[in-house]
Amino acid sequence: MIPESEFENILAKKYMRTEIMPHAFCPGCGLGIIERIILMAFEELGWDEWEKTVFVSGIGCSGWVPLYFRRDAAHTLHGRALAFATALKASRPELNVIVIMGDGDSMGIGGNHLIHAARRNIGITAIIATNMLYSLTGGQMAPTTPEGARTQTTPYGSIEPNFDLMELLKAAGATYLARWTTYHFMQAKNSLKKAIKHKGFAAIEILFQCPTYAGRYILNKPDPRDMLQWFKENSVPLTVAKKKDPEELKGKILVGEFLHRTDRVEYTEKLKELEKRAKGG
Amino acid sequence: MAATRVNQIAVSDKLCKGCYLCIWACPWNVLEISEERNWRGVKKPVATKIENCRACRLCEYYCPDFAIQVIVDEEEEKEILEVEERYEKPWLRRIERRNEIVSRGVWWLES
Amino acid sequence: MYVEPGIHLMQGDEAIVEGSLIAGCRFFAGYPITPATEIAERMSRRMPQVGGVFMQMEDELASILAIIGASWAGKKAMTATSGPGYSLMQEGLGYAILTETPIVITDVQRGGPSTGLVTLPSQGDVMQARWGSHGDYGIIALAPSSAQDMFDLAIRAFNLSEEYRNPVVILADEVIAHVREPVKVPPLEEIEIVERRKPSVPPEEYIPYLPDPGEWVTPMPAFGEGYNMLVESVMHDEFGHRIGTDHVAAERTIKRVYYKIEKNVEKIAMYETELMEDAEIAVVSYGSTARTSLRAVREARKLGIKAGILRLITLWPFYDKIIEDIASQVRAIVVPEMNMGKIVREVERAAKGNAEVMSLPKVGGVLHHPDEVLSAIKKAAR
After folding, report:
1. Angle of CA points C313, C319, C324, to nearest 5°
2. pLDDT over 80 at A281, yes or no
3. Does residue B1 register a pLDDT over 50?
4. Are B106 and C252 in contact (CB < 8 Å)?
5. Which of A11, A101, C201, C263 is the most buried (most CB within 10 A)?
6. How big is the B-C interface in CB pairs under 8 Å?
7. Phi, psi torsion values for C33, nearest 5 degrees
8. Neighbour-count burial of C226, counting CB atoms closer than 10 A to its CB (0-12 exposed, 13-18 middle, 19+ buried)
9. What per-residue confidence (pLDDT) applies to A48?
């Protein structure tokens, strides 16, 4: 029998900075599950891939995700993770660059960098952890807050419609897109594996439970178990959604693999070509 | 009743925050909230019906804090200890060295 | 690959590109802005030729984060901008400082505030270069006065940034950026280039932000080399781990990023003097203003006034000692600047009342005429 007092799960022992754990997330926070999704993907991809991987994150609860990995990681400024990552990938194309962003990093303050990274189709894997509001600062409206939802800055209900990240990135030129929730654990892991191997800009949106703020303010479900149950009951796989009429899908979370294009050349490959031309080759 | 298939379901006192997602995830009702609080003040889940466990590991997958581990047999126990020795321990030594240097006072604060 | 040794007619903006490439710059990210656009333009042509990467980013916020990212990828990296862009970069600059990332930022100053005088020179960003980002930190800023300086100081800037693991700002101005002058390129083997120090200990023993006794910075590994670096924008301890309320650890980190520059001012500071041996009136100047000041000092000598000039090449960290020395020698110090008087405050402070300090401000986007400086010298000599 293994003593339980200082115990960590085997994945944590292998991949994480256990000396700074337990991590700073609230009890039941879905970001821990996202960490686990990432580590499970690498457990299957192998240690060699892990050693080639670097993480970049922005500010917000989501920004803390890679800080617990025993791996090169940059905790950058709010919204600027993709700018840092773009240069990292352009300078060292052999690295797997994984960027973890939240609602603000990806669609709020960092929205511009997101669409330009997708436009360039640079080989970055973006994990976009959304939870329908800003949680680090205490539950204010985010670009993903559903219209009508009450938050700390929308006490009378939000009057702004929310972003559909998948449609936004499709238009901007991303080449791999998937959306899952933390309930869809295995599917998210499989999509992530594909995204890491994908040549081009890949984004996976993972809706995670924030029992402390989204649970209390938006869904009226302060228990993480109820939130996961809600994800389970309110998510519709794309294949099923195609057969339904839009009225039925109102308020539902569409999940699945939204896009997998192979017709666009990846940015760093074009960079190599450009260098050849510049050198007169 | 099936024979016990799982040796231990370890729940970490250090990491468990008591969100009970493991209990929600378990299809076999293996886990229950313990009566007593541990040293961190958490009533952590305990495997009261370990004989029901099929080692599907859903509790591990949904645990956001890496606090729970299904340990099927001695071999798995050995694997965990091997991983600890190889991947975790080498990185922990430098902490003591830092603490020692810092406790003596870093030189740029004195100058 | 590099510009041939010899004398070339070059624009300041072009000279800084050639100097940077020789210094080892292999990544440039920028966003077009007058009067720094020529730097990006020439970089876009030259960088791929030497095997580097040029990226035109979506804005200056992205540009500075991109060069920080490239620096952690193991490249020497630079960006170039002007006032408005430099203002946008301040947050990123703070990130580079706290994470001790070597980068070079060229700010080709134009008239401000706001969009301001787009095509006209200024020295208005001098204090922003020192205090622009929030919090306490040390920073190095160099002020070139000629196209030759743009070439030489580009190399010096990269060397300093690698040595101290700190951002270095080149505070050029529109005049220096656009002037076409002969630039002497020495043979490559005569140019001193500082390469990045890599850790010699195995990753498990490496403490990322705890330098050896007597050293100010640690060697810097790149991403992907197994050192598991944490490049943390939150106040961190010696491992790069976030610290919440550990004020003792925070003090250690803040004081080191402050003192590593301020305490090494003697090693970093560069200046030039002319006609100072017997001077009774000193002109303290920098950047393009130093050119008109030199002319005025020579004119003053013709009139029998014992004037001399101190040209500050390193603006930050401010070298108090040289001002102190001069103040004890001369009667008055004239400080012409293309702003409402910024460095003059530092001069006044460092002079400690030993000499009269006269500010000679100039705004509106035009250089001082030598006669203006001369009449200030005459006034000081009375």
Report:
1. 120
2. no
3. no
4. yes
5. A101
6. 39
7. -160, 130
8. middle
9. 97
**Where does the pLDDT of residue A112 fall: very low under 50, low under 70, confident under 90, or very high at 90 and above?**
very high
Do you find a cis peptide bond into C317, omega within 30 degrees of 0?
Answer: yes
Which residues sit opposite A263 in a β-bridge?
A: none
Q: Is the pLDDT of residue A116 over 80?
A: yes
Nearest to C239 among B98, B106, B108 (CB): B98
Residues of B in contact with C259 (CB under 8 A): 108, 111
Q: Which CATH architecture has domain B1-72?
A: 2-Layer Sandwich (3.30)
For residue C337, the model assigns a pLDDT of 97
Confidence (pLDDT) at B3: 59
Distance from CA of C18 to the nearest CA of A (A): 16
Please state, in angstroms and as integers, the Cα–Cα distance from residue B46 to each residue in A131, B33, B34, B67, C304, following that order: 30, 6, 6, 12, 95
Half-sphere exposure (Cβ direction) of C96: Cα atoms closer than 13 Å: 37
Is the domain spanning A10-238+249-278 CATH 3.40.50.150? The answer is no
Q: In angstroms, rounded to a whole number, what is the distance separating the alpha carbons of residues C333 and C312?
A: 14
Q: Contact, C191 vs C9, CB < 8 A?
A: no
Residues 11-70 of B with CB under 8 A from C: none
- Token digits of residue A93: 């194309």
- Residue ranges per structural domain of chain A: 10-238+249-278
**Model confidence pLDDT, tens digit, residues C309-321:** 999 999 999 999 9
Q: Measured in whole angstroms, how far is the alpha carbon of residue A151 from the centre of its chain? A: 22
CB contact under 8 A, B24 and A228: yes
> If you average pLDDT over residues B16-37, what whole number do you get?
96
The residue whose two tokens read 């231990």 is: B8
Integer CA distances (angstroms), C139 to A122, B42, C119, C258, C274, in order: 33, 48, 27, 8, 27
CB of C362 closer than 8 Å to CB of C368? yes
pLDDT > 80? residue C97: yes
Angle at A64 between CA A60 and CA A70, to 5 degrees: 160
Residue of B nearest to C256 (CA): B108
Q: Do B14 and B66 form a contact (C-beta atoms < 8 A)? A: no
* pLDDT at residue B98 is higher than 70: yes
Give the one of C204, C210, C213 whose C-beta lies nearest to B98's C-beta. C210
Q: Which of A57, A61, A65 is nearest to A97 (CA)?
A: A57
| Inter-chain touch A18–B88, beta carbons under 8 Å | yes
Q: Does A207 touch chain B (CB under 8 A)?
A: no
Best of A1, A5, A6, A10 to disrupt the B interface by mutation (most B CBs within 10 Å)?
A10
Contacts of B89 in chain C (CB under 8 A): none
In which band, very low, low, confident or very high, does the pLDDT at C131 lie, cut at 50, 70 and 90? Answer: very high
> What pLDDT is stored for residue A1 in this prediction?
87
B98 vs C: CB within 8 A: yes
Going along chain C from its start, the domains and CATH numbers come out as 1-268 (3.40.50.970), 272-381 (3.40.50.920)
Percent of chain A scored above 70 by pLDDT?
100
